Fold each of these.
Amino acid sequence: MRILSRIDVGDGSPVPLDESDMPFAILTCYGKIVDDYIRRIPEKYPCIRIENYVVMPNHIHILAIVDNGVIRTGDPSPTIGQMMAWFKYQTTKEINAVRNMPGQKVWQRSYHDHIIRGLQDYFEIMTYIDENPLRWNKDCYY
């Protein structure tokens, strides 16, 4: 469902007029919850750094770096799966409280991951995230 944001262009029209008028995501109240918890990930997991992300109308993209060299106490380094489980649980709980719909699903069961295998791959993923609002009208759930 398109509950997280809407994609707009600088002048409010659904199509960019020129290259300087790029589409961007305007967060809903649920999208703001998601944005808040993405920003909290490094607080919860100090060895995870969020490099880039975008909250789309019906999904998110996050570029997360796991830095195993971070000095910390307590638990060993979390996996991306543990991070995503925490993130989905927290956001679902809070979104459902706002919607007054306890127990409802917000996210799909799993997630799609991609291991970055070099600098070119890193920049391609960064660009993909940055340009995702541009491709929204081509999304299969648009």
Amino acid sequence: MKRILGTAVLSALLALGTFVPQASAQCVTGTGVDILLKWDANGFSFETGAPYTNYVSPAGNVLTNVLGVTLFCAPLSGLDPNDPAKEYTMVWSNLVSGGTVTTPFGASGSKYSTVYTGGSFALYEGPINARAWTSSTIPAPAIALPGYLDGSVILSGVIDSLTTTVTRSSLGTVNGSFRGKYRVTGGTYANQFCAGNSPDALMDGLWFPVNPPAGYTGHNNGKFDAPDCTTPTQSTTWGRVKTMYR
């Protein structure tokens, strides 16, 4: 009888594991890289300065990006982005454009690459007001920005570089992506990262340049990879090791 019950319980657990998605599985990329956080297609960028037109950012423009986090992973896995009492928003600020470089793409298409530097980011825990905004409902940047900035800063740092790449094929198909580097330097959760000394980490995702909401230049989704806190190894000889203890 015990054996039958054990088999039944095991079968139920296996069935439960089949139908209930594991959140931890979403925290690792296909290449085995650990994710820190991610957001779906409700990130929005805008630039101040000269007009941003035809995927070209004039040098000296300043980019701001706002987003709502939809998934947290270790060491932030204790935060719930769907908490009914609060929301988690992030703002990237002061990213200065180096000017868009246009090069050929394919037979007769074009590639637009823009490097931004000198930026920073802040992750806020605050009241719910921006979570429901989509590309069809988000207000103009000046109205939306305060909704992303409110609350307490639980993580902050610098964005050393951000590169956006937009391609337009000869058929008129447009795609976009971004890649950058960030470092954690502050916030109430900063001590959770590499004993408070966070190395460079990667960020990347999709950068949709087609028909962004009024007043915006891009519509994005993406992720921050978790910093690698492992201590680098260095080769040496047994003789050198012995001299360290003489």
